[in-house]
């Protein structure tokens, strides 16, 4: 009997990623967590081995791999006990430049992103007053000659302190002056290197996990007009395409987390002896781990189905959102089972369970909450009335 492996073609990539991760054991991540420090050495190692340039075409210095291969890379990072949150944005923001950027922008930026000279890690979309309601964002970009002048605020903009470039969504036409509510938003590729303190202010947000997230304030920030990606006013459509890849890739990370929790929990259950027997001999320990494994397998299948559809040129909104929800649920269930298996030792930092437990919880609410995904499926798939928004219309 053969086993099903949706990423079997990428076993060599997985092996390579695992070798990189072996150089960054739990002690490395615990130290970063305590100091709230950015994993620069880990990110540099991934760049050196070419993994963060996976989706950049070969003619721009990248590997020219597809989304499925990129998902396998991120899954493997998490299954090894590491965390790709410090660098995963480079993969899913890349699609905006690749699909909608012009040739001059690609030639200018992609080779330098591929070789690590530039980092594209920041994605400025969410705002304090709009949250998931992206169409209600208030950050504006006003055209003045050969420049755009940007004013507004973003929140939960992760890694911006460690990035050279930011993909930014801003309103270029007032909402009451557009024919369709999805028009009037534009996407920009902002060079941050000489703008912090000159139109940009960054304020870190301390959170329950080491996620390097911030608030970003724009005060008459001036950027060249050629920073615009694609057509002015069509940015919302561009961002939606990028969000599908984001959800698929983060879902793959969740699968990796689930595998780490299951591997770690099962190993402890085999080794921990209480009342003369391994605790893993008890069905009360076995069943939660086994059930979590079954749910992980089901979620894994939809994650790579969504990735395959994306690679085939489809726009798998339903599949991408479903994959993210089910994978996040699977990782959280596995985290709970692992935590319970370890008992009191789960709370000890040296076991890494509590750190990974905190990290896994994030994906119930980010990059989109489970409840919003359920609303989306109810409306888009089941044809049910819209349950949110003005007049629910």
UniProtKB/TrEMBL annotation:
Keywords: FAD, Flavoprotein, Oxidoreductase. The keyword S-adenosyl-L-methionine does not apply. GO terms for molecular function: acyl-CoA dehydrogenase activity; flavin adenine dinucleotide binding. Belongs to the acyl-CoA dehydrogenase family. Residues 122-220 form the Acyl-CoA oxidase/dehydrogenase middle domain. Residues 8-116 form the Acyl-CoA dehydrogenase/oxidase N-terminal domain. Gene3D superfamilies: Acyl-CoA dehydrogenase/oxidase, N-terminal domain, Butyryl-CoA Dehydrogenase, subunit A, domain 2, Butyryl-CoA Dehydrogenase, subunit A, domain 3. InterPro entries: Acyl-CoA_DH_CS (IPR006089), Acyl-CoA_Oxase/DH_mid-dom (IPR006091), Acyl-CoA_Oxase/DH_mid-dom_sf (IPR046373), AcylCo_DH-like_C (IPR036250), AcylCo_DH/oxidase_C (IPR009075), AcylCoA_DH/ox_N (IPR013786), AcylCoA_DH/ox_N_sf (IPR037069), AcylCoA_DH/oxidase_NM_dom_sf (IPR009100). The keyword Oxidoreductase applies. Its cofactor is FAD. This is Acyl-CoA dehydrogenase. It comes from Roseovarius lutimaris. Residues 233-366 form the Acyl-CoA dehydrogenase/oxidase C-terminal domain. Transmembrane segments: none annotated.
């Amino acid at each position: 009997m053969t086993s099903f492996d949706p990423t079997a073609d990428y076993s060599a990539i997985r092996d390579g990623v695992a070798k990189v991760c072996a150089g960054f054991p739990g002690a490395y991540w615990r130290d970063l967590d305590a100091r709230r420090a950015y994993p620069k050495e880990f990110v540099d190692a991934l760049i050196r081995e070419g993994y963060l340039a996976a989706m950049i075409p070969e003619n721009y210095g990248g590997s020219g791999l597809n989304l499925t291969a990129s998902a396998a890379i991120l899954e493997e990072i998490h299954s090894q006990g590491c965390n790709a949150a410090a660098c995963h944005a480079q993969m899913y923001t890349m699609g905006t430049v690749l699909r909608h950027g012009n040739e001059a922008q690609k030639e200018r930026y992609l080779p330098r992103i591929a070789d690590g000279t530039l980092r594209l890690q920041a994605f400025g979309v969410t705002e304090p007053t709009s949250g998931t309601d992206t169409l209600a964002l208030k950050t504006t970009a006003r055209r003045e000659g050969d420049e755009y002048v940007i004013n507004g605020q973003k929140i939960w903009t992760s890694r911006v302190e460690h990035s050279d470039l930011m993909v930014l969504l801003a309103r270029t036409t007032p909402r009451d002056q557009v024919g369709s509510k999805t028009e009037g938003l534009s996407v920009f590729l902002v060079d941050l290197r000489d703008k912090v303190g000159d139109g940009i202010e960054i304020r870190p947000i301390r959170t329950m996990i080491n996620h390097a997230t911030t608030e970003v304030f724009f005060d008459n920030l001036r950027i060249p007009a050629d920073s615009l990606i694609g057509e002015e006013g069509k940015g919302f459509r561009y961002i939606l395409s990028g969000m599908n890849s984001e959800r698929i890739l983060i879902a793959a990370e969740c699968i990796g987390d689930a595998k780490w929790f299951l591997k770690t929990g099962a190993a402890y259950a085999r080794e921990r002896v209480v009342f003369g027997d391994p605790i893993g001999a008890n069905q009360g320990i076995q069943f939660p781990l086994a059930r979590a494994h079954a749910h992980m397998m089901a979620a894994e299948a939809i994650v790579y189905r969504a990735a395959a559809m994306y690679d085939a040129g489809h726009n798998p909104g339903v599949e991408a959102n479903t994959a993210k929800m089910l994978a996040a649920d699977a990782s959280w269930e596995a985290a709970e089972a692992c935590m319970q298996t370890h008992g009191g030792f789960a709370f000890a930092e040296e076991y890494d369970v509590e750190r990974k437990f905190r990290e896994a919880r994030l994906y119930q609410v980010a990059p989109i909450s489970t409840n919003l995904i359920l609303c989306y499926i109810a409306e888009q798939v089941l044809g049910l009335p819209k349950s949110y928004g003005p007049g629910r219309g």
